[in-house]
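Workshop exercise sheet. Pairs work together: one partner reads the sequence aloud, the other fills in the structure field after running the prediction. Swap roles for the next sheet.
Pair: D.N. / O.F.
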Amino acid sequence: MSLTSYQRASAKQKFNCITEHFEDDNCTVDTQYSPSRLVRLTYEYALSEESRDNFLRAFFQAMALSIEKNDDSDIKDIEDFRSPFFGFADYLLDNFFLPLKASAKKTPQPSPTYHSAVERVQGGGVAVFTGTPDRVSALRGACLIRDRHRCVISRKFDLKEAAGRMRRSGNDALDDDGGLLREDENSVDLLEVAHILPHFLLKTDAGSELSFSKQAALAILNMLDSDAVHLVEGTDIDRPRNALTLTRTLRSLFGDFQVFFEPVSDLQPHNYRTDSFYPRILLRDPAFPITRTLYLSKNRTIDPPSPRLLALHRAIAHILHLSAAGDYIDKLLRDMDGQTILADGSSELDRLVRFGLRGWPNESTC
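Structure field:
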């Protein structure tokens, strides 16, 4: 049930008062991560009014505040909310942003299976909040076909596919559009499939049910975009609408939420400005930002990348970057790998232990 306009305005005013009060309380002295900004940005980057209403309801429940109360008499002493506020920020970080960033580091890369690839990835029923199999061969094959064996950003042709075609046809080998590969202005490269929302987000620990922590992650996902989980639950996470073909380098940056897609115009479907948080000088092949129209398969037999999922990915990328939670999580993951654990406790072992016990993979195990 949506909030009334009056309830929404009152709730937002209280939300802003609380988040602004704790704005300067950073999580650690050696990072710029701000729990307050993480909470505020998660609300601001929610993709619909319904999603933002859901977030406000969850926030007010966590603060033990009534969202129906219109005056500000219940927030006169904001320091009283310190413990539940930072607890809520930890809930978002520990149950969503930390595992999401860790599990997004790597999409499995099996060999493509072209035979009936389209039928296999387009078919199948929808399970309810269950995990998905690890096999993504059909997905990779379908994405390569849809994306014409090219990276959707750099337009580089797949090295292995080019080599196979040249073995068969020599210098007469053609790309998917009928052009000669030897005359292609772009170099070839190794291409990989990249999930927009990570494959391991819905992976089961045992049996067929998701753990409580992963159910919590899906609940937070739905606060960013109401009912978005139904786009990627069960086997749907391995459908072409949740994947792109990218070079190995760009897949790594995209999976790390350092590269994102922003729609150019509602009048130009599947046309995006691709940008990155990395310094421009580091990304020159191709140079960022760059505008690309995503490929569509013939007769639309393979779903294009979902604009809604790309919008979710972009929102998450900005939340991680602007709150500095992304850098903080990277440090935590390095600590988990045993690279920088210090005697003064700066490795935040408690958080790492909780993370490990929840069964989330770190980047070395994805």
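Discussion prompt: The two ends are 38 Å apart (CA to CA). What would you look at next?
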